[in-house]
Amino acid sequence: MAVNKPTPEQRKIIEGQAAARRGGGNQGGSSSSTLGSILEEAGLISHDMIKDLIPDNESAATLKHALVSQGIVRPDDILDALAANLGYEKINLRELAVTPDLVQQIEARHALKYKVFPVAYDDQTLSVALSDPLNIQTTDDLERIYHKRIIPVISSEDDIVRYLRSYYESSDISSMYQDAADEAVSEEARKDEEDYFSAVDASVGGTEEMPAIVRFVDLMFKQAVHDRASDIHVEPNKSGVTIRFRIDGVLHEVPAPPKRWQNMIISRLKVLSGMDLAEKRIPLDGRIKLNVPDKKLDVRVSSIPTVFGESIVMRILDQASVLMGLEDVGFLPDSVRVFKELIRTPNGVILLTGPTGSGKTTTLYSALATINNAETKIVTIEDPVEYMLDGINQVQINKEIGLDFSMGLRSILRQSPDVIMVGEMRDLEPAEIGIRAALTGHLVFSTLHTNDAPSAVIRLIDMGIKPFLVASSIQAVIAQRLVRKICNNCKIKYKATTEEIQAAGYDPLEYADHEFSKGAGCDRCGDSGYRGRTAIHEIFVNDPELRQLIMRVEPTSKVKRLAVKKGMRTLRMDGWEKALLGQTTMQEIMRITVDL
C-alpha cells in the first residue's frame, strides 16, 4: 500500500505540538488542549464543551474518552480530524495484508510498549500505524531504535490493540497452556510448594525466565484485562480446574490448565493477595496490585473452601471506571436532573439497591465526586475501600481490632462531616445510626440488597427500625441493574415482531413502526452483538403521601403502585427507554428485569 512521508511542514506542526506539550509538563501523551483545538477547528466540538467535560489539567485520553462515551463524537471522527489536521493518511488495518516479514520489522516489546503496528517498509523507511499521532516521542524513539525514517499513519486504537494481540502478544491462552504444560516444573518446587511461591516476586508481570505457573497467572490477568473481564473465577472440580471470565455480566469459560497445576495456581494467587498459605479451611480475603500497560488496577480476591479445593474469585477494580459523570453511569437526562437535586439535599438518607456487581459502588462514587468540593466534608466507611478518591476521608473496616460499621459510624459523627457514606447497611445497628445521623442534619449515602427501590423501606423496617424513622429519614432509593450495550461496530436496525413487544409488556400497535437495534455480531464483540454495559435505574423519591404508606407499613406492591402513579420509572420502563434509544435490546431488558 502507498504511504506518504510527512512533509517538513507536517513534521514542524507535530514538533511544535510536542514542544508545547513538554513545556506544559505532560510528556507522557498529547494534551487535551491540543486535541481539543484540532476537534474544535474541525467543527466537532466547542471550547465550552471541553471546559464542561474535563478539567484543564486532564489528558487528551480523558477528553477522548468523555467525548466518545457520551456519544458526542465518534472515534472515526476524531481520527479523521487528526488526519486532516496533520496531513497523515488514515488506514483500516483490516485491509492490510499482514505477512511474517512485515511483523518482524518491529520487535514485540517495542510494538507493545509504543502501541504501534507495522504497515509498510523498505530499506530506508518504516511506516507504522498509531492512534496518537501527536505523541512525537513514539516516532523519535522508534527512529533511534531501528535507524530508519518512521512514517506514522493513523488507525483505530481498537484495531491496533487487536492486531498487537494477534501478532505480538503471546496472549492466546490455549497456546500458552500448551507451552506451559510442556515445561517441567522442578521436583524441588513441587516438594515444598510454600517456599517455592514465597520465593517468587509477588509483583504481576512475569518474564520468560519465570516459572511456568507464574507466567501462566500473569497471562491470565493480562487476558482478563484485555477481554474487559470484571471478574476471574478459578474453580476446582473433580476432573480439574475451571477458569471463567465474567465479561459484560456473563461468564465465559476459557481453556483449562492441567489438573496438576491446581494447587500451585491457587497458592500463587494466595501469595499475590497476601493470604495465609497454610489456612485452607475458612474463607479468606485479600488484594492484589496489578500493573498492566497504561493501567494500575486493584484486584479484590475472595477464597472459599470447597470439596475439591479452594475456589477463588477475583474482582478487577479499575480506578478510571468510577471517575465518571452521572451521564456515563447510565442515567437518562431527566434522571440526571432528579438525581443531582437529590444528592444536593442537606440531609436525609439516599440508598442504592441492587445485587452484587450491579454497579452500585460506581454510582455512589460518581455521586460523591459530583458534590466533592472544598466546602463539603465527606467521610466514608467501607468494607473494603475499593477506590481512593482525593478530597474524601475514607475509613476501612477492620473487624480484627473491633472497627466495624457501628464503631466507625459513631466515630465519624464526631468528625463534623457534612456527607457520610456507609458501604452497606447490613444489620440493625449501623442502619439505625445512619438513619439517626440523617435526622440530625447529615446527608447519608448507603447501599442495600433488595429487588427494587420501594422494597428497601420495608427491608429497613424488617431489620427492626421503627417505621416513623424510616418514613422521615429516607429521601430516595435508587435501584440499579447493569445491562449489556449493543456493539456499535455491528449495530443494525430491525422491526420488532408483535410477540416481542407484547412479551416486553408494551402495546405492539404503539411501536409497530419503531426501528429497534441489535448487534449482528462481529470480531470486536466476540460475535455476541454486545460490547460494554450501561445501567438502568428505578428512582423512588419519597414524599408526604408515600411516607404515610411507609408509616402504616403497607405492602411493597401498594407503595410501588403509588410511586409509579407519581412518575417513578420502574427498571423495566427505564430499560425500555434505553431499548427505544438503541442502547440495548428488548431481549436484554427482559433478561434482567421483571414487569411491574
Structural class: alpha/beta
- What does the main sheet amount to? 7 strands, mixed
Distance between the termini: 58 Å
Q: Largest sheet, order of strands side by side?
A: 12-11-13-14-10-15-18
Compute the CA-based radius of gyration: 27 Å
Please bin the fraction of helical residues.
Answer: 40-55%
Which range does the strand content fall in?
A: 15-25%
Oligomerization status of the protein chains: single chain
- Kindly report the average pLDDT value: 80
Low-confidence stretches: 1-15, 17-30, 170-174, 181-210
Count of runs of 4 or more consecutive helical residues: 26
What's the total count of β strands? 18
Global shape: globular
Short characterization:
The protein has 596 residues and is α/β, with parallel strands linked by helices. It has 26 helices and 18 strands. A seven-stranded mixed beta sheet has the order 12-11-13-14-10-15-18, sandwiched between helices. Strands 6-5-4-9-8-7 form a six-stranded antiparallel beta sheet, covered by helices on one side.
Outline the fold blueprint.
Elements: H1 8-23, H2 32-41, H3 47-53, H4 60-69, H5 75-86, H6 100-103, H7 108-114, E1 117-121, E2 125-130, H8 136-146, E3 149-154, H9 157-167, H10 173-182, H11 187-191, H12 193-198, H13 212-226, E4 229-236, E5 241-247, E6 250-254, H14 262-272, E7 284-292, E8 295-306, E9 309-318, H15 326-329, H16 333-343, E10 348-353, H17 360-371, E11 378-382, E12 393-396, H18 405-412, E13 419-422, H19 428-439, E14 443-448, H20 455-463, H21 467-473, E15 474-486, E16 491-495, H22 498-503, E17 515-519, E18 530-541, H23 544-551, H24 556-565, H25 571-580, H26 586-592
Parallel strand pairs: 2-3, 10-14, 10-15, 11-12, 11-13, 13-14
Antiparallel strand pairs: 1-2, 4-5, 4-9, 5-6, 7-8, 8-9, 15-18, 16-17
